[in-house]
Here is the input.
Amino acid sequence: MSYEPPFKITSKAINLISQISADIERFKIRLEQEDGVRLRKINRMKTIQGSLAIEGNTLTEEQVTALIEGKHIIAPIREVQEVKNAIKVYEKCMSFDPYNEKDLLKAHGILTMGLLDNPGHFRKGGVCIAGKNGISHIAPPADRVPFLMSDLFDWLRTSDYHPLIKSCVFHYEFEFIHPFEDGNGRMGRLWHSRILADWNSIFIHLPIENMILKNQTAYYKALEKSTDENDSGIFIDFMLEIIVKTIKNNRKKVTVNDTVNDTVNDTVNLILKYLKENPEISYEQLAEKLGKSRVTVSRKISELKKAGIIKRIGADKNGYWQILDEKL
Here is the structure.
């Protein structure tokens, strides 16, 4: 008899799946906008920094960005290596077959290269997961891991459940098995995203890991409660909510918020520069200085206003611009 992970699909999960299916298409449109390429880069950085921070890596978004750009930083050697490995594995992510166990081992080998004695191989010893009140989970014995992982991949390949369900179940079961000596959390989150990207490639550009970081306590509670009740439906509901929040955050977020100080965003930085120099400057004058159309300038100004970075005081003809963020 083939293995079937224990979980219940709630009405809440069904509604969330419907919402995600619609929202992800809107996010796709968001990525097709003028700053879509930059948003992908920002989200990749947030994905890497978020997943590693969950495991205790202290490197900041700025430091991770520097490493992505090939720059040198002053930081703990191991943490730098963790980030460099994560950069490599996320770059190769779409080349991995999410239904192939050997590809998962290959990905783990990249993720933990130089960090473990035997990267890319299942653990040979026992593992206990510590919680706030002591040991929260004792993983299955090491000699069971190959069989459990084989069963899990068989289920993943043959299951007819929606990918949004399958990815959550795989994530939970993977963490329950804890197949590796280290890197289980990072791999579980990576593979969750890779399974989803097989359904819709847009998911590879969605920083789900960063939203998990913001809800880290609830993430661990959902894992623990699913284990206690022998029902990963609890974790399914949690992760679907996380995905909804991530899409919503990326749809409403003007990338200016994250990249006002990024020299790549020349147009926005120049607009802010000219507004500082001459708060009474008009749209036409800005367009002329920037060498852009009035429509483009108007759109960028609108983004800055929505982001709470600038504010118009008075009417268009005799008013002036106020920069609300003093750091800019």
About this structure: DSSP finds 15 helices and four strands in the chain. The CA atoms of residues 42 and 103 lie 26 Å apart. The chain has a mean pLDDT of 88.
